[in-house]
């Protein structure tokens, strides 16, 4: 899981990005992750800009041979729901998560699903 550390509703020279909304979400995720049953299976990392600046906070899920998900407009209060989504992602063979299984708290956020490269090249 990658969390954009620069996500913030306001961007200006005065913003302390060490305390941005993205950094805050990352800190909450890492705190919950410490006691999470799947902590050894899912890495959470803080990354630079995911280029969704008008839709903070942004989080992505990616793995080899799995679909990639990019979630935007994730509220700071939904760290636990992101871990629920992470569990579904881990359990899915190809990263396919049925819409109805997505945690209710994340159903309203914007989502993009990108097929794995292996699926794209196998269709040629």
Assembly type: single chain
Portion of residues in beta strands equals 15-25%
Give the number of helices: 3
Major β-sheet annotation: 5 strands, mixed
Based on Cα principal axes, name the global outline. globular
Q: Mean pLDDT, nearest integer?
A: 90
Give the number of DSSP strands.
5
Pfam families: DUF1636
Organism: Geitlerinema calcuttense NRMC-F 0142
InterPro entries: DUF1636 (IPR012863)
Protein name: DUF1636 domain-containing protein
Defining key terms:
single chain; 124 residues; alpha+beta; five-stranded mixed β-sheet; 5 strands; 25% helix; DUF1636; DUF1636 domain-containing protein
How would you summarize what this structure contains?
InterPro entries: DUF1636. This protein is α+β, with helices and mostly antiparallel strands and 124 residues long.
How would you characterize this protein structure?
The structure is a single chain. A hairpin with a 6-residue loop joins strand 3 and strand 4. The chain has a five-stranded mixed beta sheet. Helix 1 (21-33) crosses helix 2. It has 124 residues and is α+β, with helices and mostly antiparallel strands. Helix content is 25%, strand content 15%.
């Amino acid at each position: 899981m990658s969390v954009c550390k620069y996500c913030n509703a306001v961007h200006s020279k005065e913003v302390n990005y060490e305390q941005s909304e993205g950094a805050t979400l990352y800190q909450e995720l890492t705190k919950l992750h410490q006691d999470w049953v799947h902590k050894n299976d899912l890495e959470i990392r803080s990354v630079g800009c995911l280029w969704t600046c008008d839709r903070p906070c942004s989080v992505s899920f990616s793995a080899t041979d799995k679909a990639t998900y990019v979630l935007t407009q994730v509220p700071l209060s939904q760290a636990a729901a992101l871990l629920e989504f992470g569990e579904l992602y881990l359990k899915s063979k190809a990263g396919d998560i049925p819409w109805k299984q997505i945690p209710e708290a994340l159903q309203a956020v914007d989502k993009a699903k990108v097929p794995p490269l292996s699926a794209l090249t196998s269709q040629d």
